Structures are given as structure tokens and as C-alpha cells.
Amino acid sequence: xxxxxxxxxxxxxxxxLDFGGVKAVDGLTFxxxxxxxxxxxxPNGAGKTSAFNCITGFYKPTGGSIxxxxxxxxxxxxxxxxxxxxxxxxxxxxxxxxxxxxxNVRAGMHLRLRQNALDALLHTPRFRRTEREATDxxxxxxxxxxxxGDRGGLARNLPYGEQRRxxxxxxLACGPKVLLLDEPAAGLNYGEKGExxxxxxxxxxxxIAIVLIEHDMDLVMQVSRRVVVLNFGREIADGTPDxxxxxxxxxEAYLGRDDDEEDEEMMSHE
Amino acid sequence: xxxxxxxxxxxxxALFDRIQQNRYLGLxxxxxxxxxxxxxxxxxxxxxxxxxxxxxxxxxxxxxxVGYCGLLDLGYAAFFAIGAYVxxxxxxxxxxxxxxxxxxxxxxxxxxxxxxxxxxxxxxSDYLAIVTLxxxxxxxxxxxxxxITGGPSGIYGIPGIMLLGVDLSxxxxxxxxxxxxxxxxxxxxxxxxxxxxGRAWRFIREDEDAAEAMGINTYRVKLAAYxxxxxxxxxxxxxxxxxxxxxxxPSFTFLWSALILMAVVLGGxxxxxxxxxxxxxxxxxxxxxxxxxxxxYFVFGILLIIVMIFRRQGLWPARAVERQSRRDxxxxxxxxxxxxxxxxx
Lengths: 270, 345
Hints:
The structure holds 2 protein chains of 2 kinds. Chain A is of the alpha/beta class.
């Protein structure tokens, strides 16, 4: 909380995204501070992933602004945003399946490897050194996320839970200041969720701010410092997990949808 | 019995992997190319082998674009034509030695790569293929209509290659020149493929959005692939002019682009040994089928279909498995045993 008064690392201001007549994101505003762990929650279709895609440059927002470190990144291409210190994972796991696990993680290091085409053609000492460093660092990140399994093998041959870890390792290898994770617990079993919680805490311990989209309320309540609740593209609550849990608008949004499984999850933590 | 069935293909694959990863594989290929004229050195055989080498160079060049980066280019002959015409014009009209045209051809290829790639690389897959097809035809038709390119009759009297006063224009000299140049071209393309840039190409091929999210400017990296392909094609064009001493627009039809692409796909996209093999296959097979006379291309076509049905991944597919150093492997195994909790990079 002490960082509250300082300048936010990431500031999303009045973000709008329309698809034709549909308002996917409708005036979303939130800030992420250094070493923050912020969760975006909300019913399906609330605009969480759309907001992520705007923030990381994949969608061009129809209104509002996004600033990272005080610089406006609203209209930049995704790679330029990544270069400024924001990396992400995808909801439906977007690994490079036909490439090795190590290569997947090396992708994150692309921007930091000081090596040009001439180095590669001539196999200069610099080429060898940078390649060795890349391998070492990729291995370290895979250690960090606790990957089990063959690192020299194809990414698609890993079990699902391990693939999730590789995706996080790849995002970490970008050297982000803000890490956006889109439903990292989806498809994980109970034990793996526990390991994810531990991993998120260790990532936070590295001084990386985390923005999380997650449906698993257990995880959200345990890991988040702040929770932002969206419904129909609009922000309906922003506060600590305890504040949000007691928020009447949140309870209404969740209780209004009886058939939604998140209701029960939400209720069970009341 | 079941174990036998299960292990023997696996063992064969392991052996195959070992051969494929062998660092001396390239040297073996080079030795074969160097020694081939000692088996047969008729003018005909040398010309077939020289053509095969040029084909190899074109195929590894196109492999950068199609195999590594996954951009379907149906107009690759355009770069080949640009190289051949630029060097041919400088050599015949301005009397430049062929070697002196090399830097100019490289510049022309880079410019052509940017001009053609710049607008088209914003498109994806099928659309890109159609636009490149169009550009391939534009280059050929332009050459057909300009006076400087000699119109439909093209350019003739392109001199052979002279190096430090040594005349390399004879069939033997040209063949060995091609061996050296093509060997370097194959090595260079393979090395690029294993570098930071080569990895970025593969990331784009696998998932363009994910690559972009990792900070890779996909537009620039795709353009780099295009420029790389253009340089390889352009340099092959110089050798082509030197070999035939005459070039004309029909040398650069869509059929060429299609055959080069076929070599890449047949050999195994993204695999250097595969693409080399594919190119030799495509260029030499019609010659070996001369017996079949008029049915030559018919048999050729049937064979291609058969190969593609039974070996869709190519003759020698790319190997994506990486052998780790012993140290890294041991560390990873330790990791498997105890879950690292305290390791912080």
C-alpha cells in the first residue's frame, strides 16, 4: 500500500473498445503500481481479455489511453510495448509447439541478445557467447518456473500443466516490469494450482508487477493485493480482496447469474 | 514381438537423428560435389551438375522465406531474374567483369526485397502468395518489354567468370566456382537459421501473434527473411547468366518459382539437408528420366505425387529436437527430482 502515492507503473485510463455496436470494454480505469499483484475478475464476456489485448497492443482501443512508465503506449505495436517492459501469456496457451522448450524461452530474450546476422554467418566469438548466455538464461527461467520434462524436446509434447509453465517462463524471459497472465490456472489440477500460487509469489518477489485474469477465486483471493471487478466492460469494483468480497455491486453481478459456476466459488469464500 | 515393432522404428529414428545432427554432414556433401566430376565429366554431365548446384542455391534461399519464416512466396524467380539481369546488363553493355557486379546485384536484391516485401508482408498466408505470384509476373513482363533488358530476346554474350586472371568460364571452372559459392550459400543459410534471427523467423512461422508479444517486430523480421531470400536468389542469378551466357524472359517463368518451391517442400521445409536433397532431386531427376523420352515429365510428376503422398513431411524433414549439454541435462534432472524453490535467475 505504501506505493499507492507513487507514480503508477501502468495506468489504464477510460479505456473503450467497441466491436461494431458491442462495447467490449466500456470505460475501464485502473492503475498498477510497482510490485503490485492485481487481479481482473468478472463473469465470462466481461471484457477482461479484450482489455488485455488493448493493453498489450493487439487491439487498437476506440478510446482512452494506456501509459507505461509515464509514456503513452496506446497506439504502439505489441512488440514495441513488450520492449518497454510488458509481457503476457495467452488464455489458450500460444506456445511455439513445433519448436523446442528451450527455443520457446529464448523467444523472450530476442530483444536482449546482442547478435546480428553477420555474427551468425561468421560464427564470431560474440555469436558463441550470446548463444551460450541465451541457453543458460533459458535454463534458469525453466528452473525458476519448476519445469519437469525434456527441455530439448518439442513444446507440444509436454503435458498441459508443464506447457503453462513454459509460457510463463517465456514471458519472464522478456524481462518484464509488468507481467500479464490470462487465466494461468485454467486447466490445472489442485496440486498444480498450489504450485502456481507459489510461483506467482516468487515472481512478485522479483519485483515484477503482475496483472492476472483469473476465474479461480481461491487463487485470486490468496495472491492478489488488489482486485478489479468488471461486468459488461465496465469496472464495478476496485479494492483489496476483502473489500471486493463485501462489495454489494460485486455480489449482485455474481448472484444475478445463477447458472454461473463462479457464483458458488465466490460464495464459498464469503 | 510388440516391443520389437515399437523399438525398431524408434531406433532407426534415433540413428537417423544422429546422422542428421552430424556436423560433418556438410563436409560429406561438399566432398561428393568436389569428387563428382571424377566419375563423369562430360560437358553434358557438368552442365546438369552445375544446374543442380544453382537449384540448390535457389532452394536454400527460398527455404529462408518459406521454410524458416513460413511465408509462401510464389514469385521467387523474380529475385533470380533481377540478379541475372542486373549482372548481365552491367557485363554486356558496360563491360563490367561478372565479379564486379556482385555488390550491385546484392544492393539490387535488397532493394527489390524491400520494394516487393514492403507492401506485401502486411498480408498473411494466401493473400501473400497471390501477391508474390503477381510480382513474379510483373518482373518477367517488365524484362520482356524494356529495351535495356533486350526485350523478348533478352541478353546474350554474358562473359564467364574471371578470378585474379584465372579463366573460370569453362565447364569445369564454372562447376567448381559453383561448388564453392553454393557451399558457402548453404552454410550461410543454415547458420542464419540457427541464429537469433533464424529463431525469430521460426517463431513467426509458428505463431505470429505470440512472436509479436515477445517483442519481435514481426514485420521487420519477415522483411529480413525476404531480403535474405532475395540476396540468395540474386547471387544465383549471376551464376545462371555465367552458365548460359544468355538470358531471356522465358527463363524466369512461374514454372521456375514453382519448381524451386517444390524442391523446398519435397526436401522438407526448414531443413537444410532436406532442401539440398530436394533441389538435387528436382533438377537431376528429369535428366535421369530421359529414357522415358516424351513421357519424362509425366513420370516426373507421378514420382513427385508419390513422394508427397507417402512422405508428406519431406524427404529429410527438419529436426526440431535439441541436444543439451551434459551439464544442462544433469541440472534439469536434478530439477525433476526436487522442485526448485529458491533458484532465482
